[in-house]
Amino acid sequence: MQSKLSKQELQDIIQWDVKNWQNALQFWETHFEIKPGMKVLAIGDQFGGISLYFAKKGCFVNCTDYQISLEKAKELHKKYGVENQITYLNADMRALQFGDDTFDIVVFKSVLGALFFFDDQDKAMHELRRVLKKMGRYCLLKTPVRRGCIVL
């Protein structure tokens, strides 16, 4: 399946290693029912690419990263006119400040490995499950991406 996104949109969304990561977007297009109005939590989205993808589909997104400025993400979202659909905040995925059953989709790529200890990874996964709605989905992307992503 070919992406309907332009080369520039793919670059802005994926931001690095477009050739491999675009497989994840194609997987989402095929396997996710992404509807306008859905609530999405984008973890570790410092530059805002994943948030951009979901905001362009009409979702309301929480664009987060761990104690890093999200100014570049804000600039990117303004470029595409989706900044009003996105909330920006610093968040530690081991202790999320959201209520239970808040999000339809929780998504991240390459951030779980930044937590070096299994105990921290377990805490993060518990938090992600906690904030995800009962019928929600979370998607974690692990490099290298060969056939898309892991959907749980």
Structural overview:
It is a single chain. This protein is an alpha/beta fold. It has a single domain, classed as 3-Layer(aba) Sandwich (Rossmann fold). It is 35% helix and 23% strand. It has five helices and six strands, in the order ααβαβαββαββ. Strands 3-2-1-4-5-6 form a six-stranded mixed sheet. A hairpin with an 8-residue loop joins strand 5 and strand 6. It is globular, with a radius of gyration of 14 Å. The C terminus is likely disordered.
Nutshell version of this structure?
With about 150 residues, this protein is an alpha/beta fold. The chain has helices at about 5-15, 20-30, 50-55, 70-80, 120-130, and strands at about 40-45, 60-65, 85-90, 105-110, 130-140, 150.
What keyword list fits this structure?
Rossmann fold; disordered C terminus; 6 strands; 5 helices; alpha/beta; single chain; 152 residues
Q: CA-to-CA gap between the ends?
A: 22 Å
- Total helical elements: 5
Percent range for β-strand residues: 15-25%
- As a whole number of angstroms, the C-alpha radius of gyration is 14 Å
Helix % is: 25-40%
Count the E strands.
6
- The backbone outline, from C-alpha atoms, is globular
Low-confidence stretches: 143-152
Strand order of the largest sheet: 3-2-1-4-5-6
Topology-level CATH name: Rossmann fold
CATH superfamily grouping: Vaccinia Virus protein VP39
Mean pLDDT: 85
Q: Provide the CATH architecture.
A: 3-Layer(aba) Sandwich
Briefly note the structural class of the backbone: alpha/beta
The SSE string, one letter per element, is HHEHEHEEHEE
Largest sheet: 6 strands, mixed
Q: How many structural domains in the coordinates?
A: 1
